Amino acid sequence: MFQPDKSTYKLADGHEMPQLGFGTYKIDNPDLMNQTIATAYDSGYRMFDTAQLYRNEKMLGDAIKQVARREDVFIIDKVTEMNQGHDLTINSTDFSLQQLGTDYVDLLLIHWPVADHFFETWSAMEELKEQGKAKSIGVSNFTRSQLELLKTQADEMPVVNQIETHPYLTQQPMIDFDKKMSIVTQAWSPLGRGIVLDNPMLAKMAKHHGKTPAQIILRWDLQRGVSIIPKSKTPERIKENTELDFELSDDEMSMIDVMNKNQRTGNEPELVYELGKQY
Ligand SMILES: NC(=O)c1ccc[n+]([C@@H]2O[C@H](COP(=O)([O-])OP(=O)(O)OC[C@H]3O[C@@H](n4cnc5c(N)ncnc54)[C@H](OP(=O)(O)O)[C@@H]3O)[C@@H](O)[C@H]2O)c1
């Protein structure tokens, strides 16, 4: 049984992470942030995803304080490309904590892999965990070969890999590899930023279950063991995206699996790795 405020995944470091979180990319004014966070918290979301890049950490921290106690929420933040390297990772995270108005984040991620400072950045992440400034540490947009490279020098491995995945970019081999490494996969743009929502097959399944295409996709992720962080600024959709207590059959799961077109809405991780920045 799925309950947005209670269902969690156990991470390899022993911490629990909510299965469902709320994405805040492009929620960039305080009124909208206060409104969406209040609706999200009321609807049962307990995990909130931000990044240094989104420039909304302070707004998010302030909005959370209005509705919840720190210990009742799980905050994810991400170190941006230009803040990578040992000292910048440490200093920029200190600044992020100040912005969020908290002593720790529950999960700190490297936002994108970049070739320069690759190991140094991770070693700073390990230090931040040691200091209690991040309860858990992970990565985002890492490919299999980048995780294999990291493993050659890491003292501990990431516990989460946040990657783009939706029915048009199913990423099953990557998810299988994460699992083999005891890494929980978290889906960013789980709704493909809208591009998959008019798929006729999803509409058919939605009708059958009395649900919406967005709910079918989010349920598919939960059934394949993937954490989800959909974003919406629309109160009805924020709530709708938490109502996932139903079951897709094995056939329905397979029908979504084969919608894959390897179609990205975001950057290609290998290129960001080479360029050192998003393009
Ligand atoms: N790690 C990374 O590199 C990375 C990259 C991108 C995103 N992210 C994170 O992932 C989060 C989610 O990704 P995203 O915001 O790019 O895309 P998304 O969650 O896949 O899609 C958001 C879009 O879908 C619409 N939507 C939401 N729920 C809906 C529903 N039930 N029915 C119909 N439409 C719906 C939203 O519209 P309205 O808002 O108008 O309702 C919005 O236009 C981000 O906010 C961010 O926190 C991480």
From TrEMBL:
<feature type="domain" description="NADP-dependent oxidoreductase">
    <location>
        <begin position="20"/>
        <end position="259"/>
    </location>
</feature>
<feature type="active site" description="Proton donor">
    <location>
        <position position="54"/>
    </location>
</feature>
<comment type="similarity">
    <text>Belongs to the aldo/keto reductase family.</text>
</comment>
<keyword id="KW-0521">NADP</keyword>
<protein>
    <submittedName>
        <fullName>Aldehyde reductase</fullName>
    </submittedName>
</protein>
<dbReference type="InterPro" id="IPR020471">
    <property type="entry name" value="AKR"/>
</dbReference>
<feature type="binding site">
    <location>
        <position position="111"/>
    </location>
    <ligand>
        <name>substrate</name>
    </ligand>
</feature>
<dbReference type="GO" id="GO:0016616">
    <property type="term" value="F:oxidoreductase activity, acting on the CH-OH group of donors, NAD or NADP as acceptor"/>
</dbReference>
<dbReference type="Pfam" id="PF00248">
    <property type="entry name" value="Aldo_ket_red"/>
</dbReference>
<dbReference type="InterPro" id="IPR023210">
    <property type="entry name" value="NADP_OxRdtase_dom"/>
</dbReference>
<dbReference type="InterPro" id="IPR036812">
    <property type="entry name" value="NAD(P)_OxRdtase_dom_sf"/>
</dbReference>
<keyword id="KW-0560">Oxidoreductase</keyword>
<feature type="site" description="Lowers pKa of active site Tyr">
    <location>
        <position position="78"/>
    </location>
</feature>
<dbReference type="InterPro" id="IPR018170">
    <property type="entry name" value="Aldo/ket_reductase_CS"/>
</dbReference>
